[in-house]
Amino acid sequence: MTGQAQTLAPGLYFLATPIGAARDVTLRALDILASADVIAAEDTRTLRHLMDIHGIALGDRPLLSYHDHNGERVRPRILAALAEGKSVAYASEAGTPLVADPGYQLGRAAIAAGHLVIAAPGPSAALAALTVSGLPSDRFMFAGFPPSGAGQRRQWLAELAAVPATLILYESPKRIRELLADLAVSFGAERQAAVCRELTKRFEEVTRGSLAELAAAFADRSVKGEIAVVIDRARARAADPAEIERALREALECHSTKDAAAVVAEALGLPRRQVYQIALKLGDDD
Prior knowledge:
Shape: elongated
Radius of gyration: 24 Å
Structural class: alpha/beta
Number of strands: 10
CATH class of the largest domain: Alpha Beta
C-alpha cells in the first residue's frame, strides 16, 4: 500500500516533490517518506504539509531543516546519521533536488564518505517547461537563475547566446521584464522562446513567441508565481563562402587543416564539419 513503512537500505535518498499539484508526487517518494529513519527538507513546513495531505505520519522521527543558510551546520548531523547506518530522505521545497537547490553539497559529502546515494525522480519545473514550450528538446541546458544585477546579467547572457542547445532559465516575477528585454538584445529579437509561469498550479500560463514579442507582452505586466523561461538554441548563421575561404586561407598559414577549420568554425559560428570540408577542398586546389 502506498505510504506504508518498509525497510530501507541505509543511505541518502533524494526525493522529487510536486512543483504545484500535490498529486504529482510519486508513489515511491511517498513510500520513502513513510519509511526513512531521518527526514531532511529544504522547507520543513512544505514537506509536512505534503505528508499530511497523503496521510504519512512523521511520528518520533527527526525532521531536519537543511538549506543554503544552515548547510555547514546541519550537514554533519545528516552524515552522522548515515554513518550510524540510517536511511535519510531529503526533499527540495519543490521539484527535483540539486536543480536550483542546496542538495548538491550534501550529495557530494555523502558520496565522499562512501554512503549509498539514491534518486527517487519525479517533478521538475525545468523539464515541465521544456515539455510545454514547443522548442527542441533533443539537446538542452539548464542555466539556473540569472544574476540580479543588470551588468552581471547581460554579461552572463552574452556567454550563453551562442550555446547550440535549448536553454532553460528560472527567474523571479519581479525581474522577468528586465530579463526578457536583455534577452532580446543579447540573443536577438527573433529568437523563439516561451515564458512558463505557475506550472501545474491553478493559474498555469505559457506564453510563446519571439523574444521581442515576449519582451513587449511583459513590459507592462505585473505577474506572480514561479517562472521558467525556455529559449530556442543558437542557430548557425549563414556565412558568405568568400568570407569562409578568406578566413581559412589566413588560418592555414599557421595551422594544420584540422586546426584551421576549428578556429574558423568557432570564429564564424559554423559547423566544424562544414568548414573542414571547405578547408580540404582549398588544400586540393592548391
